[in-house]
């Protein structure tokens, strides 16, 4: 029997750590899978995904910029994929239909609550950013019963739009209350280019965790800013990457991998 085939679609995709992560999960399961990177051209996701699944693909991850395309293309959607308007996981079902899910939010929640041991229930949570990355995590955060969930964004209208859709609060970036939040999550794409949202340092005064969904070899600019502003801890999004992958793997294969050794291997540069 050939090994079941999985892939990650993206553009660019050469940098993706997903193959290394999933190979470690497979070793834990004591089996073998194929997991490749597939570069698709913008506008051609549906064609590429259809070809992959017609050719025996069992499941796929989807990354930037195709998460919205994946959501539109799939035959059925999970509630969280529908809420996010984006999918990062595709699953071929026994009847041949493709089901789309979104494990990004649950990955963020698992990283904060399990890996960092920071409870989300009863906390005042701020999300910065109102693009696809922010949208994907609102529902799973909301389901953790925070005391409040507030969204803010450089372009205020976009935060207001998401706040109205999800029934959460919106606030202007320049008018956030000092010491107003316990957990502050950066979901802007600014980190990728070293840019920090224009937020007053006093906002971090009672922040127990400042979480950047981006990650890199060094602490991100947002993490450094938050630490200087008084956040007790700051984190990058590498744990979220591993946790969302673990949830995808579980959906595909019914096996829940251990994430700690995989995260340690990534941090240690071993994979
Ligand atoms: P993604 O899918 O990664 O969320 P996106 O949909 O392009 O990407 O959204 C990017 C988000 O990062 C937006 O909220 C954007 O703010 P605007 O809506 O005002 O454009 C935010 N962003 C990007 N660069 C930023 C910066 N330098 N400062 C603050 N916010 C930034």
TrEMBL record:
It comes from the Bacteria. Pathway: Metabolic intermediate biosynthesis; chorismate biosynthesis; chorismate from D-erythrose 4-phosphate and phosphoenolpyruvate: step 4/7. Residues 8-90 form the Shikimate dehydrogenase substrate binding N-terminal domain. SUPFAM superfamilies: Aminoacid dehydrogenase-like, N-terminal domain (SSF53223), NAD(P)-binding Rossmann-fold domains (SSF51735). It catalyses: shikimate + NADP(+) = 3-dehydroshikimate + NADPH + H(+). One of its GO terms (molecular function) is NADP binding. HAMAP family: Shikimate_DH_AroE. This is Shikimate dehydrogenase (NADP(+)). The gene is aroE.
